[in-house]
Design a protein that fits this description.
- It holds the Pfam family 2-Hacid_dh_C.
- Keywords: NAD, Oxidoreductase.
- It comes from Flavobacterium branchiicola.
- By secondary structure, the protein is an alpha/beta fold.
- The chain has helices at residues 37-43, 61-64, 85-90, 103-118, 120-128, 152-163, 174-182, 191-197, 217-220, 242-249, 289-307; strands at 2-5, 26-29, 49-52, 72-75, 94-96, 144-148, 167-171, 186-187, 200-203, 228-231, 254-257, 278-280.
Length: 320
């Protein structure tokens, strides 16, 4: 079977130890994201199996209708709203789910918190320009770290915050707030108090119909002018246009971002990149060698199992 791996921006997949799992099979690797479904369908016309790198490509009914040879989509990590599972079932394309880990995204989120609050990237950039000590950052100790979403990543962030001497304030579902209390942390009495009391707010929610644009401009307006918003989850959790407008108005005063509504970004003039109070990273929360090996080993093993007529981790088994 012909296998295609999509969106390998960094030419990294062939260098992974787990890539050896596909030895002996015909493998095509695409290094660029193609958002034109006609062009992408042309590149994939002979592919029977495609391997997705997380959510970099949208798998829509329009695209699936142009891929009559496609039999399996093997996902690195869990399936999400980038993939139309009903359309996959309609076109008899099996979807194999992979595995995830909170370690790398948790560390990246904390790194963004540290860099945004301490203003490290701005100091480095100024030094490259021959300037010395152009700004004054702030420490984490004594601050209130607001965590919206107390799942695996949120729980890890809470532990980091405690080690750094910060207070933790959790918002989210009733069950997640109660879990936070069980773990010795505080829960916010209301969404309004969560936004107004936190010195840093970091988002760790899944994106779905109920969480789409769940953070409103009115929420951001409640934040302190000294506060920072960190988003390593999904850009669409925030109301369209609200973050840039709020940053310009000074509430919050800072942001650290790893996710954007339209990725990848190749435009150096992208507005958020031009804002001195914003630290941006190019969606690298899961882009780390141990995570890659974990994700791709499972994805490739699912491919081999399917080829050997022993499909595993199929999210829509009715197509088999």
């Amino acid at each position: 079977m012909k296998i295609t791996i999509l969106d390998d921006y960094q030419n990294a997949v062939e260098k992974l130890e787990s890539f050896k799992i596909l030895n002996g099979h015909e493998v095509q690797i695409l290094n660029y994201t193609h958002k034109d479904n006609l062009k992408l369908a042309t590149l994939l016309k002979d592919s029977e199996i495609i391997v997705l790198i997380r959510e970099r490509t949208q798998i829509t009914e329009d695209l699936l209708s142009k891929l009559p040879n496609l039999k399996l989509i093997s996902q690195t990590g869990k399936k999400s709203n980038h993939l139309d599972i009903d359309a996959c079932t309609k076109y008899k394309v099996a979807v194999a789910e992979g595995i995830g880990s909170p370690v790398a995204p948790s560390e990246l989120a904390w790194a963004l918190i540290m860099n945004t609050v301490r203003k490290i990237p701005q100091a480095i950039e100024a030094m490259k320009q021959g300037k010395w000590q152009v700004n004054i950052g702030s420490t984490i100790k004594g601050k209130t770290i607001g965590i919206w979403g107390y799942g695996k990543i949120g729980q890890q962030i809470a532990k980091y915050a405690a080690v750094f001497g910060a207070d933790v304030l959790v918002w989210g579902s009733e069950s997640s707030r109660e879990k936070a209390v069980e773990d010795g942390f505080q829960k916010a009495d209301s969404k309004a108090s969560f936004f107004s009391e936190s010195d840093v707010i970091t988002l760790h929610l899944r994106l779905n119909e109920t969480t789409f644009e769940i953070v409103k401009k009115a929420d951001l307006a409640l934040m302190k002018p000294t506060a920072a918003l960190i988003n390593t989850a999904r850009a669409e959790l925030i109301e369209h246009g609200a973050l840039i407008a709020s940053l310009k108005e000074g509430k919050p005063g800072f942001a650290g971002l790893d996710v954007y509504e339209d990725e990848p970004i190749y435009d150096g003039n992208f507005e958020l990149l031009q804002m001195p109070n914003v630290v941006c990273t190019p969606h690298i929360g899961y882009v780390e060698v141990n995570s890659y090996e974990l994700y791709f080993e499972k994805a490739f093993q699912n491919v081999i199992n399917y080829i050997n007529n022993n499909p595993t981790n199929i999210a829509n088994p009715e197509v088999l």
